Hints:
Oligomer: single chain
Radius of gyration: 22 Å
Shape: elongated
Largest sheet: 2 strands, antiparallel
Strand content: under 5%
Distance between the termini: 71 Å
Amino acid sequence: MSQLLAHLDYLDEAVASRSERIEAIVAPFAEARTRLDTIPGIDQRTAEVLIAELGVDMRVFPTAGHVASWAGLCPGNNESAGKHKSGKTRTGSRWLRAALIEAALAAIRTRDCAFGARYRRVLRHRGHKKAVVAVAHAMLVTAYHLLARGTVYQEPGADYYTRRDADRIRRRAVQTLERQGYRVTLEPAA
């Protein structure tokens, strides 16, 4: 038992020394780390991984799509002669991907969060794993914009997609009722 406790003490010291070294290296990028830390699901360590893998100068990537493609978090598209084959994502930075997947898993547990709403929307049609990758992609795009514009994260809310797609939702509901043989007239509620 004393050997195990001694080994745990050694590991704690090693983690503390590595953390101090990481803190010294990331110190010039403290502002960017603080901005990235405002994104739900992204903590200090994940922000450090983002800075280490992407850097803070987003002029290297022309658009957020280029970042997602480089990271391997964009959806694949394999279609030939009208047949859809595997939509597997590309290979990219495995460290960045692992950190973002972990952050996405943390973000989807948040109730009043747009990332949680994104997860629930994709989950219905694609399943858990693809929904988590979609949230990780959204988080990477958000991180790109925060670093490129020098702003902090503004939470749009869990009802963001409902507000954004209100006309489409209304149209689909009316079409569904009309297909079932109803005549629909819409009046705004008081």
